[in-house]
Amino acid sequence: MKLKSFFIFAFVALVGSACKESFLDINTNPNVLPTASPSFVFTNAVNTSATNILGPNEIGTYWAGQWTQGNGYILNTAQFAYIFTNGDFNYWDGYYDNLEDYQFVINTADANNQKYLKGPAKVMKAMLFQQLVDMYGSVPYTEALKGGEILAPKFDDQKVVYESLITLLDEAIVDLKANPFASAFTGSDLIFRGNVTKWVQFANSLKMRILIRQSKVAGKETYIKTEINKIVTEGSGFITGEEVGVGGTFFYLATAGKLNPIYDRWGYDANGAKRALNNYPRLTKFLIDGLKASGDTLRMKRIAYANGGENGSNPGVSTLKEVSANYSGTPFGVSSGYLPANTTSLGPSLIVKGDFNRPYILMTASEVQFLLAEAKQRFSDVTLPLTAKAYFEAGITQSFRVLGANVAGAEAFKGSKIENYDWDASTNKLTAIATQKWIALTNFSGLEAWTEYRRTNLPVIPQSVQVTDAKRPLRFFYPNTEAGSNSANVEAQGKIDVFATKLFWDVD
User: Fold this and answer.
1) Are residue 229 and residue 266 in the same domain, yes or no?
2) Which pTM was predicted?
3) 277: domain range?
4) What's the pLDDT tens digit per position in 84-112?
5) DSSP string, 202-235
6) Do residue 25 and residue 46 come from a single domain?
7) Which of 53, 368, 416, 423 has CA atoms 20 to 30 A from the CA of 476?
8) Three-state DSSP class for residue 177
């Protein structure tokens, strides 16, 4: 967890230079490894973040009721019967390893005259720590990332970590505004290519995510409204009209190990051969039937391919005719009877043969609009300039856009009288926001979808057919690796029941 890859690189470089005369210079200490440049570390860290987030997004998409398992691959009881231990779902180690890299950038940027990387590194640090809390609850924060200085960091209360992340993002914004990117180093930024304004907008958007997550917690209303008004006063706004994404055509290559992580896992290899895992994720019956019932077929055809999957000779197009009758969802958790030929698979919004270099999405503009809609609906006196209805309708429009559907389809739902689609006709506005947000997160942000489901209990998704009671996972166990190396602090968190020990924002 201490920049292993860069130390290895440095060691190789050191050995490679051993035959040079300069290696024998008496002013060179051969026992001290050279320090990695913060810009190199930051680039690698962002790429690693995209890869690390893939796992939590996958399990989140299942437990949010959007995807399930296809019956053309190995079945998984940990995911769909909820039979798992502290040896499963260990995203902890990878996240903390990744956070060490961002902390290295924060600690060394000034000395290396790369101050412009401090703000982005703090934004990424805040995003990852929020996700850790949303998966595990209380986590090491104030004593974390200290290297050998503190080997057994204490756990900070999850509520305190959340508040600390708002402070961290405020610091990031100050750093960003004070330190524009040097033009020669914009290439080290795989997200915004050195655009400081967009980094500030991302920071503001993350702040909204953190604040709205706490919106049902007693006693937090004044704090949340104050922080939202501070964002408005800051003036940079939020991410809109585009996604926060890692890489793209300038970064991902048609080479093994250098593809977009989603494409590489569920799509195709570098030579265009379909991955075996393409047969595994399937869109749920609940999702597909709900989209059909609401007449939301434009988005359905972007979320999923028709039964039988993508036509390999006509990338981006289904093998069968793309009519509603040819889209069949799979019951959540079912273990037989639903093979690739008769079920819908991950659609062109996510995978198209040959599109190996799409950006890996970290946050969608649609999600941000639904955050703003909920903020305005819950706290009508915040200084956000638009109405909850306007933000809600913008969220649907942005969902159509990112999926690649004609945005005119979003306009058709205005005045349609369809519950949870037409704002004026929806009896419960918060239910409408949660429902549309759930749809919009499909294929892009599974961890966020599962987290929001735990917070809102919406939509009312079916239980896995492998489970005979109402229990659902509310969190993960602390991993056995942490229990082994930091046992006293893990034990201090008390007995964790993943079906009963709720996170602080899960109040219902």
Assistant:
1) no
2) 0.93
3) 261-346
4) 999 999 999 999 999 999 999 999 999 99
5) HHHHHHHHHHHHTTTSTT-HHHHHHHHHHHHHH-
6) no
7) 368
8) helix
